[in-house]
Amino acid sequence: MVTENSPAPAFKLLDETGTPRSLTDYLGKPVVLYFYPADDTPGCTKEACSFRDDYGVYDQAGIVILGVSPDSPKSHAKFKAKYNLPFTLLADDGHQVCDLYGVWGNKKLWGHEYEGVLRTTFLIDERGMIKKIFPNVKPDGHSAEVLAALKN
Known about the structure:
Radius of gyration: 14 Å
Number of strands: 9
CATH architecture: 3-Layer(aba) Sandwich
CATH superfamily: Glutaredoxin
Largest sheet: 7 strands, mixed
CATH class: Alpha Beta
Number of helices: 5
Order of helices and strands: EEEHHEHEHEEEEH
Oligomer: single chain
Structural class: alpha+beta
Distance between the termini: 24 Å
Shape: globular
Strand order of the largest sheet: 2-1-5-4-3-8-9
Low-confidence stretches: none
């Protein structure tokens, strides 16, 4: 179980260009690691675009944003280009990293139960420690919520 004030689990995933990326690549910088269900869906687009719209604030503070979903690098590349997303998207094919972070589980939609990504964000400090976990994220206003937490 991933908890606040514990080391962030290490991983290596392909980004939207097919380049392998490790969490350790970002040691020395704070990271916003956000898990989302799928590219180019209404809630996920709203969440990604809010991070995009606030990107200048994150970038100026030296904070890295990484989005993770089970979609392919090709899907991520299209999503990133369509919405001009300035941050890295990681492909968790097979949801191993989602499992590692405890964000894969049972969901319900219109009375139908299925397994998928539980929208969750982790704030990871420059030493690789989890400082804050945002479970059950609502896309509206989430980036502002993350920025407020980063100021504390």
